[in-house]
Each structure stands twice: as C-alpha cells, then as structure tokens.
Amino acid sequence: MAAIKPARLISQRAHLIPGQLHVTEHFFEVPKNYFRPELGSLKLFARSVRKHERPIIPLSRQEQEMASRNPYLVFLEGGPGFGNREPQESPITSYMLNRGYQVLFLDYRGTGLSTPLNARHLKQLGSPRDQAEYLKLLRADNNVRDLEAVRLCLTAEFPEDRKKWSLFGQSFGGFVSLTYLSKYPKGLREVFLTGGLAPIKSTPEQVYRATYKKVIERNQAYYQKFPEDIHSVKRIISYIAQQRKGIPLPSGGYLTVTRLLSLGLSFGAHGGLDSVHSLILRLVTDLEQFGILTRSTLTAMEQNIPFDTNPIYAILHEPIYCFKKGVASRWAAFRVGKQFKNFAWLAPEEHLASPPTYSSDDDVPYFSGEMVFPDHFESYPELVEMREAAEILAETDDWDELYDEEQLRRNEVPVYAASFVDDMYVDFELARETARIVKGCQVFETNRMYHNAVRARTDEVIGQLFKMRDDSID
Asked: What is 8-198+401-470's CATH number?
C-alpha cells in the first residue's frame, strides 16, 4: 500500500453565498500515480462549506477557530464520472451543517474541476495503450488515496479528536467508501451509505445478470403505465433504423437505437418512468406531425445521457466491478443483455444500428438500464475518440484490488446504510451480501424508495440514517 503524504494546497478562496453559508474553494496537487510520483501530478478541486452566523455576542478568536475546525463530513457523489453540485444545491448540506459538521465536496480525479477527463487531453498522452494506462488511474482506489491525502492536508492543525472525518456515499460514492474502509479506516469516524453497498465479490457479468432482472421489471412497469408507448417506441426505432449510422444530432454524433433505448437509465429513479415517457411522446409527436425529428427534440435527446460531458461514466463503468486481478469486463453488459429476447436490438454485434424489426405485439423492445455498450463509442463524439482505449480497458484484467474483505470483516468504523429493495442499479441481494461482510454495518431496508431517494426523499432517508446512529439497540 502506497504511503500517503498530505496533498499540497495550491490555493483557496472563501466567500459567502445565500443562505448564510461560508464556502471555501480549494485546489490541491496530488500524485498522478501514488506508486510512481515521478510521473507527475493532478489537480483536485473541492468546496468546503460551514455555517456563517452572526451571533448577538461576537465570537472570540478562539471560538472562531474552533468553529472553523468542526469535524468534516465528505459527500461522495455517485457515478462514476460526475463532479459535485454547488453546496447550496446538495440535499445534505443543511442537514449536516445543523448536525455540527462542516461539509466537503471533493470532485473525484477526472471529474468536475479535478483535471477533468476529455478526449483532447487524453490523445496528448500518447497511444491508446498509454491512454488506457492513464484511465486506469481514475478508479476508486486512487479516489480514496486522494481523499486521504486531502484529509491529512485539511486537518493538519485540527485537534486530535477532530482529525478523523465522516463519509456520506451516494451510489458509486458508497463503493468509494467501502474502498476507503478497506485501505485507510483509521482516517474515518463514521460512514453513511445510500444505495451504495457495492457488490464487492461479484464480477461484472454476475452484476449484470442480477441488474438486468430489475431492468426487466422496470420495463414491464413502464409499459403497463404507458401501454401506448409500445407502438411509439417501435415507430421511433423503425425511423432510426432507416438511417445506416443513425440520426445526426445537433452537437455531433448520432441517435442510434442503442442510444434511444439507453433512456431506460432513468427507470431506477423516482419519476424516471414519466421522464422517459415525456421524451418518447415528444419524439413520436415529431414523427406524426413532420415525418422527421426536429432540432429541439434531438437537442433534448442528446442532453439526456451526458456521456460526452462525463465520459468517465461510460469508459470506467464496467471496470468499477473489476474488483481484483484476473477480472476483466469484456463488455459484460452487452454480452449478458443480448441473451434476453427483449434486448434483441443488441445483436447481432455487427449491426447494432439496425436491429430486428418489431412487428409482433408481443415482441416489445425493452430499454436498458445502467449499462454501457460498444455502440456508445460510435455515437457519442467524445467517446468515439476514446474507443481504442476503451477496448483495451475491456480486455484488461490486471486491476488493483478495490476491497479488503478481511479488513471489512474486522471493521470498527460505524457504518449506516440505506438499501433499496427495488434498486435497479445496485442489486439488493448483492448489497445484502456486502452488508453481512462489513462488521457493524447497520442497514435500513425499504421497498418504498428508489436509488435516488437521498434527493427525492431526503427527509426520510437522512432521518433513518441518523436514527440508526443515535438510537442504541438493546
């Protein structure tokens, strides 16, 4: 395990934002490769936020210093591949500030403002093999090293009892939290997880065999709620399939059948069925009224799944399940999906943009979920530039280990998790298996919420997490 040194603080600037929040923007420098620091560095960006109060009796200097050293809680965003929202837009900010924390929002390397991944920069690194080697450095193992380096930097002057910090991991942020618990548990006070109990012992193929089952259930729910969309989806597919490469999009790339049916990514969230229906209605209405898809509709379509602006989500999605050496993804979602009748549009492989014609009323094309397919690297302009590196990553099996099962079994850090029975992205049974491994993990399980409940049902989720933390069990 690499020895972690404190990150180098490059700059920081503080300001106030509405709602009496004191925000500090930080830029840090960390090694690109912790095992080979001579290879250069990356910049990380973070925002820390604490309450800005004007008490009747002004605080003394000592009181001000102690207020600025409240224990940190770090929010770990889902994804992978997404930077953080502004602190005032996060559902957890006010809750955690009122609990006495200050909150840190750190953009993972390659996301947000932390040396964000982009095709032009990637090409400057050399051959596709060189690019793949760089991309391998953007996984959770290095996210955790970055976090620990930043913790050592920010808490250097803190009292000893405030140097540890807490984590709040949403979705992929929970995966990162479990890696943190495996590698640097001494830096942690407590961990909160929402939809983030990662399948720490399952290969990509095993993960997708489980999650496709839930995707199928959500498709059935969708077509039961919007039966008219069976005809609408078939009509849109037929129109797209008439074009050899797909329908050109305003910002480049193409609307392919794969890209259309990837809209099912939203099915696992509160309101997801309705949002997909709204877009399908818009697409089919264009065809009925004009016989074409209009620019405004195509713009709405291309903005729905932001692989171009968040390429890590596509290029590293399967590798997050490559949890140890010897495990390769090899386009697992594609291989598993094309075995199901209702995902026949995925095969044959050489005709991804021209799937079978759907004529029978019983032959319904299903939407995919949180899956990435080779065709995405032909229809998104940014991903087209990364296709060769993505192919190399798909065959890679010399990954570093993400989890230490023995460490998790003897874990001493309190862990409080919300797990969702109908989670389309993190299989509930695999999550249960992980919860049984992590010593001391307390879990709130529910079939009344979906994966994005921390945003859609914030009060309920956070309330349950803190109830577990604050209420003792006899």
From this structure: 3.40.50.1820
Judge whether 452 and 269 are in contact, CB under 8 Å: yes
Cα–Cα distance list, 412 to 181, 184, 416 (Å): 9, 12, 12
- Phi first, then psi: give them for residue 401, nearest 5 degrees: -70, 135
Instruction: For residue 80, say if its preceding peptide bond is cis, omega within 30 degrees of 0.
Output: yes
**What average pLDDT is seen over the chain?**
93
The Cα–Cα gap between 349 and 328 comes to 19
Alpha-carbon span 72 to 265, nearest angstrom: 33
What is the distance between the alpha carbons of residues 29 and 160, in angstroms, rounded to a whole number?
A: 24
Which residues have CB under 8 Å from 282's CB, separation 6+?
297, 300
Domain boundary assignment for the chain: 8-198+401-470, 204-395
Residue identified by tokens 């079978």 is 356
Q: Please list the residues that pair with 420 across neighbouring strands.
A: 446
Percentages (nearest 5) of helix, strand, coil residues in the chain: 45, 15, 40
Give dist(CA 358, CA 334) in Å, integer: 20
Which residues form the catalytic set?
A: 171, 423, 451
Length reported for the chain: 474
DSSP string, 393-445: HHH---PPP---HHHHHT--S-EEEEEETT-SSS-HHHHHHHHHHSTTEEEEE
This prediction has a pTM of 0.94
The encoded tokens of residue 153 equal 């930097």
What one-letter code names the amino acid at 141? Answer: D
Q: How far is CA 39 from CA 3, 6, 45, in A?
A: 16, 18, 20
Q: What is the mean pLDDT of residues 336-360?
A: 69
The Cβ of residue 207 has, within 10 Å, a number of other Cβ atoms equal to 24
Q: Per residue in 114-163, pLDDT tens?
A: 999 999 999 999 999 999 999 999 999 999 999 999 999 999 999 999 99
